[in-house]
Amino acid sequence: MSIKKGRLVKSLYGAGTGSNIAVLWILTSLLSFFLVNRYVNIPYMDEIFHVSQTQRYCNQDWEWDPAITTPPGLYLLSYFLKPVLGCHLVALRSLNFVLGVVCLPAVLFDINKQLSGKAFSSPLVLSSLPPLWFTFLLYYTDIASTVIVLLAYDFALRNAAILSSAFCFFSLFFRQTNILWVGYIMVTLITNDLSFYDPVLSEATFVDFFLTITSFIGSVLRNLGKIWKKLLPFVFVFAFSMGFLVWNGGIVLGDKSNHNAVIHLSQMNYFTTFFFFFSFPSCFSPLFKSASWKPKIHSVIFSRTTLLLLPLLLLIVKYNTIIHPFLLADNRHYVFYIFNRIRRYWWLKFLGAPIYAFCYIFFIKNISQYVSVLDFTIITLATLLTLVPAPLVEFRYFILPFLFWRMKVPWKSKNAWLAEFFFHMSLNTISVYIFIYRPFFWHSEPGSLQRFMW
What are phi and psi of 390, to 5 degrees? Predict the structure, then answer.
């Protein structure tokens, strides 16, 4: 039985996407995948470890490479798919490509439908987030981890406790910090059966935060007899995670010496800037359409909130900016050039404080009318615990926090999401071009091409 193109597009990418946008998405992704595999036909950067470990598993050699710091979920998935895909480099990369180009938009489409009651074309916008999209083309762990966590969230929204907890469990085999999002997913699931005080953030006061948390806890305790069956599978997931921490002696596999947990509050500054940068075409364009945009900008810059934030942000910048040795040791990542410039001039990092303040204020303004107090509290907590303990700044750490926050903010119009989509895809096209056609050499490795990437 044939499936009409429009119906297929709608089922995979969203009701308002349109065939032309979907075709552009697929063709750009396919062309990029083809070019990467043509010009980079040997494992590159972290792929060296991932591909090697997977091919060991494919040969039923279960020895672990201590240089790898993430769990073996991707390698086990590839091992089970070996009869279908094989274990050569292109086959391994193609697994990520299918997960990113087909599975991720489909899951995001369904999540958006559960959240808003209708899906309006956000899946391709979110899937095109440049640091995430680039991993579709290589054999990295990020896209598989992201899809599985989002599947768990999707089933939680559908009130399917067993399936949600199962995918939460599987997610721990891809990234250890996914346990933090398991907590949010569990809360999402049990609130389907609870009634408690939980106002919208834009209408809440500080007292409402206390009332919401106490009301939620009270509701959980009163309804334990009704929700215990939903909680029980998650108790197993958390017990498994704690058992791993005890057995492993920490959250990091392999080399723990370079991945010690710290308090790195500047990570939240970087994240809000990241959110602002990749969201501004749709989140912030309505502001500039208004005739009163100048007074609005002025009111933000010189507001009481900004004046209160600035001293705190300056203190964080001065005393809690951590530059990990790895950050300045590898000039193949874009983040290297940001921090290399900042390091050259002692005063430059302090100029970030007003930018961070601006980003925080607009972040809150954009999400406050779409999230409840409980949602805001739990997602904030998960974001803090994901980012703040990490000494190393990597854009991939921001992917899941970005998606969970961004899914809450609807696109104001078709033009808004189109602007964000084309902004992302333009960056993706440029990044692929630079990756393939602007390689360089290290003096220490004259025979090996190095390439720029996220």
Answer: -90, 120
Please check whether residue 129 is in contact with residue 404, taking contact to mean a CB–CB distance below 8 angstroms: no
Where exactly are the structural domains of the chain?
5-450
Q: Give the distance from CA 111 to its chain's centroid.
A: 15
SS3 263: coil
For residues 376 and 201, is the Cβ–Cβ distance under 8 A? yes
Asked if pLDDT for residue 290 goes beyond 60, the answer is: no
Q: In this structure, are residues 360 and 309 in contact, taking their beta carbons and an 8 Å threshold?
A: yes
Residue-wise pLDDT tens digits, 198-233: 999 999 999 999 999 999 999 999 999 889 999 999
CA separation for the pair 26, 18 (Å, rounded): 13
Question: What single letter denotes the amino acid at residue 351?
Answer: L
SS3 content of the chain, % helix, strand, coil (to 5): 70, 5, 30
HSE-up of residue 90 (Cα within 13 Å, Cβ side): 10
How many CA within 13 A on the CB side of residue 259? 16
Contact 139, 43 (CB under 8 A): yes
Q: Which of 332, 429, 335, 399 is nearest to 142 (CA)?
A: 399
Percentage of the chain modeled with pLDDT above 90? 60
Determine contact, residues 212/373, Cβ cutoff 8 Å: yes
Q: pLDDT digit string (tens) for 143-190?
A: 999 999 999 999 999 999 999 999 999 999 999 899 999 999 999 999
Other beta carbons less than 10 A from residue 3's beta carbon: 8
* CA atoms of 245 and 239, how far apart (whole Å): 10
Give residue 302's pLDDT band: very low, low, confident or very high (50, 70, 90).
Answer: low
- Across residues 440-446, what is the average pLDDT? 86
- Phi, psi at residue 71, to the nearest 5°? -65, 170
User: For residues 211-243, b (16+ Cβ closer than 10 Å) or e, as one string?
Assistant: bbbebbeebbeeeeeebeebeebbeebeeebee
- Residue 313's pLDDT is 93
Residue type, 279: S
Tell the burial category of 52 from Cβ atoms under 10 Å away from its Cβ (0-12, 13-18, 19+).
middle
Sign (positive or negative) of CA dihedral 21, 26, 29, 31: negative
Q: Which two tokens stand for residue 120?
A: 């309006």
Segment 252-286, tens digit of pLDDT: 776 666 667 889 999 999 999 999 999 987 766 55
